[in-house]
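Let us work through a complete example step by step.
Step 1: write down the sequence.
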Amino acid sequence: MALKPISVTQLNNYISRIITTDHLLGNLSVVGEISNLKYHSSGHVYFSINDEDSKINCFLAASYVNKLDMALEDGLKVIINGYINVYKKGGTYTLIVRDVQVEGQGDLSYQFQIMKDKLASEGLFDPKLKKQLPTFPKKIGIITSPTGAALQDMLKIITGRNDFVDVLIFPALVQGPEAAEDMAKTLDFINDNKEKFNLDCLIIGRGGGSQEDLWAFNEEILARAIFATEIPIISAVGHEIDFSISDFVADKRAETPTAAAEMIAPDMKLIKRKLQDFKDNLLIQLNNKVNHHKLMTDNILNQIKNSMDRRISQYEYEMSTCKLYLEENNPKNIMSKGYSILKDKTGKVIHSKNNLTVGEKYLLSMLDGDIVVKNEGENNEF
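Step 2: predict the structure and record it as tokens.
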């Protein structure tokens, strides 16, 4: 005989009673990897823990968050202590978290965060200590595997972008338990012989791989060797999404080895094109300036010419006026009316008869010539 039908609410209430009264489900320890981590404005934390095949939603109350002695982050493998609770309205269950512990101190994500926090607190990531990359390096050093594809990619880009930079390759292990120490020793060797190598910049890195493959670039010994290097260093490890401790301590991070090569090797073809464009623009501006000043000069010359023409016209007018005045006052013009001029032998004009001497000869100038006359006195008849 079939059981009497029940409502959804009744079913969820029944499941909730079963779960909350189960001794095992009321005090659980579950191992998994954190994902979908979200901090709510209320202070509560929501996330999931996963294994290879399954996941379960978790809830951490705000009152428990400050009690944690660690920072939660996606990818961290943890042990969750808590209990199962049923959300009746949604028909879902959640792992209510009482405490969180890292699952084993060998977890790579946890080790990465611990090392990052440690070195950051010591100032190894301080932006003020970052060295500037040279704009036009003459000699670049590359620390990487001599057999890796990353090296060939970098060399292809560097030599393709310009033909004046020299590249020195420093072979080193980039994977495995001895890689970090090997790269650190290579850096020490370069520092000890910096005058000999005379490098302007260093690239240290390798191509992509798993977290384990790239782990050497998270080792403390390499981080401190990078920090101690006097030559500007670019860290170029893995792909764009990969971050390593060397990225934070180096003077510059490149998303990939090829990006590092593009970053440090100036593209001479592009520079030449820009210089040519600059030259062309400069010539255009120069021609515009010349034409502008030529036009200004022409305007000034026209203004000077017009001014001179006006001045000459003024002078001509004044001269014609003076000429007219001189002509009107020319003695010959006066003589033409019947007047004459009497002068003594010194050429002085006689203005009055009182200046005449009896018996003295004088020069009488008339319109058509001069004659000599003698003063006979006033009583002589004419």
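Step 3: interpret the result. The chain has four domains: 8-111, 137-266, 269-329, 332-374.
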